[in-house]
What we know:
The complex is a heterotrimer of chains A (290), B (308) and C (376). Chain A has a domain at 90-281: MetI-like fold. Helices cover 71% and strands 0% of the residues of chain A. Chain A has helices spanning 9-35, 54-57, 70-103, 109-117, 124-146, 157-181, 185-193, 198-227, 230-235, 242-253, 257-282. Chain B has two domains: 5-56; 71-307, MetI-like (MetI-like fold, Orthogonal Bundle). Chain B contains 14 helices and two strands, in the order ααββαααααααααααα. Chain B has a two-stranded antiparallel ribbon with strand order 1-2. In chain B, α8 (172-196) crosses α10. Chain C is an alpha+beta fold and 376 residues long. Helix content of chain C is 22%, strand content 34%. In chain C, the strands form four sheets. Chain C has a six-stranded mixed β-sheet with strand order 6-7-8-3-9-10, sandwiched between helices. Chain C has a five-stranded mixed beta barrel with strand order 11-12-13-20-14. Chain C has a five-stranded antiparallel β-sheet with strand order 15-19-16-17-18, with no helix packed on it. At the A-B interface, α1, α3, α4, α5 and α6 of A face α2, α4, α5, α6 and α9 of B.
Amino acid sequence: MNVAAPQTPALKLAYxxxxxxxxxxxxxPLVAASFFAFNxxxxxxLPWQGFTLDWFFSDSxxxxxxxxxxxxxxxxxxxxxxxxxxxxxxVTVGTCNAFLxxxxxxxxxxxxxxxxxxxxxxxxxxxxxxILVLASMTANGVYDRFGxxxxxxxxxxxxxVAGQFSFLTTITTLxxxxxxxxxxxxxxxxxxxxxxxRLRVLLTVTLPFLKPxxxxxxxxxxLVSFENFNTTLMLVGSDAPLTITMYDRIAKxxxxxxxxxxxxxxxxxSGTLALISVLVQRxxxxxxxx
Amino acid sequence: MSAxxxxxxxxxxxxKAGAQRKRDADRLALILLLTPFxxxxxxxxxxxxxxxxYLSLREKVGPRVYEFSFANYLEFLNEPIYWNTLLxxxxxxxxxxxxTLLIGFPIAYYIAKIAGRRSRAALFLLCLVPLWVSDLxxxxxxxxxxxxxxxxxxxxxxxxxxxxxVEMLYNDVTVIVGxxxxxxLFMVVPIVSTLDGMDNSLIEAGYNLGGGRLTVLRRxxxxxxxxxxxxxxxxxxxxxxxxxxxxxxxxxxxSMWFTEQIYNQFITxxxxxxxxxxxxxxxxxxxxxVWLGLRLSGQNLANTVAKR
Amino acid sequence: MTSDSANDLECERVTKRFGSFTAVDxxxxxxxxxxxxxxxxxxxxxxxxxxxxxxxxxxxAAGDIRIxxxxxxxxxxxxxxxxxxxxxxxxxPMMNVGENIAYGLRCAGVAKGEIxxxxxxxxERVGLPGVERKGIDQLSGGxxxxxxxxxxxxxxxxxxLLDEPLGALDLKLRERMKIELKLLQHQFDTTFVYITxxxxxxxxxxxxxxxxxRGRFEQIGSPQELxxxxxxxxxxxxxxxxxRWRGRVAGRDAGRLQVETEGGARLLCxxxxxxxxxxxxxxxxxxxxxxxxxxxxxxxxxxxxxxxxRVDSLLFNGAASRVLVRGAGDKLVEVAYAPSGExxxxxxxxxxxxxxxxxxxxxxxAQPHSDGADPQ
Lengths: 290, 308, 376
């Protein structure tokens, strides 16, 4: 008997129904967004006009499919580029941070740890505008004084990367540090004792141990970057990533089924990546330090 | 202690040299590890916020001429629409946080304590998958469901409950439903993690000592889950107060969300001083609420938020 | 400062401080080639720090450590030919058995074919041939133990350090591994330095044992010497079981001391240390097996110390069975007994007499507080 569960059948049933309802609530908008991607109609609305894949693959107006829509493809490409850059950077710095906070003792460590966490609780819009302001002030200052235009400090992909990196590094640090906590330092000492150089210890013992966390952190960073809107909105230039492109469409053109196709594509892609990141972290259990 | 050491001078010197070398290497490693961290925090967090703080405290008095003043803050106070928006955002965020806790806690409890071993993992995953789907897609999904030509309206008409198309977008209830949807997972996940660590024997002991269902819930389960609840509430509150897409898309033109004001000042009106002021106000305000929440619950930031 | 090459490891006045705390205090010893040397002490006595200095993970504040006669001060850990078996073994979980053992050889740049041959050979020697491809978590506790030793021995170290490697094993396996370790040491003919807080591990396996307390070596000797002739109160209390009486020296008599215990009994004792004057506070140690137990009316050797009491309880534990006797001053005394012998029909409440020879009653200056030296 599970003492934690409700004991009367009616209560049990009600609880189950509530949980079921909750998951229906979770799934409803995702299903709704995907649903119209397959409707052979020019508008994402009922009635159902028959199944089609045109909103993915058709190459002509008026039913220009996602994979032939230049602007959406361009956005996807930008998102991919930004996501890869942010994932690489934030995992690299996150790894350094994990070593710093898990392995080292130094003055003001407690204070700096709080500083490390703070980006997670700053609203994304504010992170966006503050980085925009600093970058612009710097660029203006340099231009006024030296007459040099630093275009990477103007809204565009480099700033978007900086903005997303600024809060994702906290997440990657926490993920990697959590794994590092489980690392037995004796493994490194054993490797040193067996004659390995410091670099070799890092490459053959420490990093392989951290690998599941590095992969998971990278995937998380990539995903969050791919779906990010708030921070990106403030920093975006002419090379807009997919979410911004899609938002512009919704706001300016109104919704068309190609946006449903894009949504479906995003749901499937991020669902798959999320699943991989969970599985990667799961698999480590049998291999725990002995 | 130095006398016996000096008695063996042949070994004293290398001992010191070796220790010195080790200390130097340690120092170098520490500096190398601190550099990326400090670059990140100083260049992307501290300086930018000082930047908007600085902007918020200056006033444009002519073309490219500025002077120090509190004019931006005074304008905020003098313009009811601004502070009304902030108050409304705050009130709605607190409401959303409370509702999310009410809705999310039973779910977290079910996943952590009632579901079987295998369905627990599956439910947890189900919880996480929508988490990774973009805000935009979720809001778009709600639009598909709730607008005049949406699925709900069609179902209502088809079943005869409504005579004509029903518009369910652009009202506060929809905004709240959409916001809860966006943030509920951030409430469920930390509570599941803390409840996972609770031994069922604690509940058994509670009953064994004569507690009723409610007593056990109130005196044992909820206090145990408190760090998770606080973490969830902080994250949910911050995300809600800082959200942009959901209120705009589901609330429409009159959603009156504070982040929208910030965006308008910056991008539409190109008034960076005003926008920075609003940014600082939102930051100070949300920090205040979070700080208050931490104080009242006796938790601290590092062990609630970071424990996820 | 010449070094005798017959010693694999020598430590000379080694000291290590952490802040104001002195973890290892002026320790000197030498270990002849091919012997099994144990460092025995309670947790926190500095034995692990000493071992970490030998392995090169800590630098001593003063003193010298020599391996095969060569000082290793300033030599980094990865260049010392001292290998170590860690407390929790520290087998690399991301590598299989073969890769674990090959790790050190790879670092040394040994050719691939040679690595394979040597890994195979060492696995043969530890009695686990052909397990190269197994994962670490497919091994049993005892097998892991042997792999950890093989991983070190394949590098042919001058000295093998073992840091309480049996601590994590269950009792049965631990008993078996004690014997196995001793056999492995014989087989490899390498100097083993074994660290433990478990006196039975140290006594069973070692050629020589150093008893360590509060950063200092109390006594170095063979297991028999430590057991039969402890030179300090700490050693007497820490190695083996003892009954203790606190008391005061009441007189001297032909190399024996007359001690009056707090309970009022008079014991004739052999002084365990020099300079115990009349009136000195002392502690008397008597092993449970040195006490002869007879019925109150039975015959007692007149030259022996005589203690009267009543049987309190019988603790049956096979060959290690004990009788608890409540003696003078309400003190409980442990006495070894063979349950099948003539005392077999003892019952609680029986009046008995305990006798022990003066030579088996050792007294030492009383310690201000018996830090961790409690026999049980």
